[in-house]
From TrEMBL:
GO terms for biological process: ceramide catabolic process; long-chain fatty acid biosynthetic process; sphingosine biosynthetic process. Coiled coil: none annotated. The lineage of its organism: Eukaryota, Metazoa, Spiralia, Lophotrochozoa, Platyhelminthes. It comes from the Eukaryota. Residues 586-595 have a biased composition (Basic and acidic residues). GO terms for molecular function: metal ion binding; N-acylsphingosine amidohydrolase activity. This is Neutral ceramidase. Its cofactor is Zn(2+). It comes from Macrostomum lignano.
Amino acid sequence: MQTIWHWKLPMALILMIAFCILSTISAVQGFEVGAAMMDITGPVAQVNTMGYAHAKLSGLHIRLFCRAFAFRDSAGNSAAYAVLDLAMVSHLLSFTVGKRLSEATGGRFSETNVMLSATHTHAGPGGFNQDLFVALNTPGFDRAYFNYIVDGVVQSILAADRARTPARVLSNSGHLYNASVNRHPHQYLLNPAAERARYPTNVDTEMHLLRFDDAQTGAPLGSIAWFPVHGTSLKVSNRYVSGDNKGIASQLMERHFNGGRDWPPAGGARGTFVAAFPQSHSGDVSPNVRGVFRVPDADGAAGEGDEVEEVRCNSSVFKTFDCESKGPGKDQYKSAMIIGRMQFQTAMKLHQSATTELPKSLTLSVVHDTRDVSEERFPAVLDLLNSVNNSASYRKDLRACKAAIGYAFCAGTADGKALFSYFTSGTQRASVLVDAIRDLLAKVTPEDAECQGSKRICLNVGKIFWSGIPFMSSQIPTQLLRIGPIFILALPTEVTTMAGRRLMESLRRTEGFPNEGKVLINGLSNGYYFYVTTEEEYNGSYYEAGATLFGPHTLNFYAWHASRMLRSILTTKRQKNSGNFQPKRTPSDLDKSNRLDGISGGGGGDGQGINGLDFAGFGKNFGQQLLNLRNSYEQGDTVELKFVACNPRHSFGISNHSFLLVQRYNTRLHRWETVRNDASLDT
């Protein structure tokens, strides 16, 4: 016998249950975002900066962080985006982070759908790059610091993923003027006059912001603000680790949304507001808006605070050994604060005025590819930009070269002087001695010279090997991430202003590109392979041209490759990590990364530093005070403290570590409370 149970529920309860079910379904089907950050500061002493060839670090200005965002759409597609306060992201770093995340998430995150980019600060430590030409600057590869960065990035992305919540995504754009200049305006003028006439300035002044809010509470979760400007407010003379102007912009915005609170010491991921300021096409864009002046002192420092007569250098041809660019402030630290604050203020205006909400059913798609650029043959797709009806003929069998640097690279820029006074920016002046040394390391063949075109080769870095590893690989990672109508093109390079404009226009012209779509160049992502200029700029004799490693057709390679990735995303049906465009090969050079431990430089590769064990000195103890302090100080007084300390280099692997705490005694609770730490902008 079958028993039938009859339930009589109040209609109000039935409606409530139905509403809860529908709300749950809606939340699952919506777009989710999480944000978090972790410390990646690393050693603050006995290490060279990554970005300047001969600047050593011996202290801390502000800490470096990885700021991460995790995304998931209603179809279950996941992606992560992270901005690191570093000069660049190495290919080995993105490869290792992807591998670690794949192991931790069962393949849900991997190198394919994780985009890593850098703020391009020139005041951070080096030692994390697998390409020897870059690593020798540090000097060498620091395995301990590399692992510390990897841990910080992995943990920040996992924390962001755990913090995911249904979110509203809003988009906004606006202009920021007087925060950037083209550092090589004569190079920009080499581009066609008709093309230049389409743009009001020789730098892009547009900032684009994505804003993420909790869909249920409306609470702000974070934002990403793309704006092209170099992280070179702090000069070669700076000796302190810092995130430079973009690191400052992030901290100002985070402090605003987090109730004035500063970030915790190293090791603390946070679930509150995260503000990232990544780079865009900033290859020829400087924050030093006052111009280029003759250096007044012998060691090449800018003469901070000195009352000296300012003599402008020739902006066309000059020795960077004698000249240096200057920012808007009285000294380099004030300049970094001014440019950082300008980015923060513009981002705040865009955040507050953002009204364009992206659809809740956002499409999340990503394509990632690695291939040897020197083995590719490709059409000159950019030839079509100036044609009518896309019917003009164009070159169809271009090729790129093995990596080589030109004499113009050795001259440096006014943002960072050359190592030697011989080299001159704006000329192709060569040297018989340099050529002889170059050919001893790797001879330049007629084929090499023909491939590189007008660039006079100073060093054939793609043909120099150490322990089976090339000084500069030609295996290039590229990636395209789609978040609804936003297409983020990740390139492992610094893209000049006009080169970036051509790339974006080329992609916008792709068949099927949405009318409301927007292309964003995300430079210095997933690897570092120096610069990309237009062909016209390449034929000049400036730093960016000399640093375009793979020859005059490098930009056309990236444009062709990006268009293929874009067509893959546009034509592939929505699916997990969509795109039928699969990686051509695994980067073989990265499999040899263990050989890099043999070239460890200042850090010894073990975090111990070149001085080994710490020693307090005879008759002294660690922590011993060497300078007497007064019992009390008035507001505005300078407090000077001197004590016996360990080598600060040895501390970067310690969780929740801080070099400095400023505490206030709470008389009501009878305890000391931390109000500032070494991550604070005002310490």
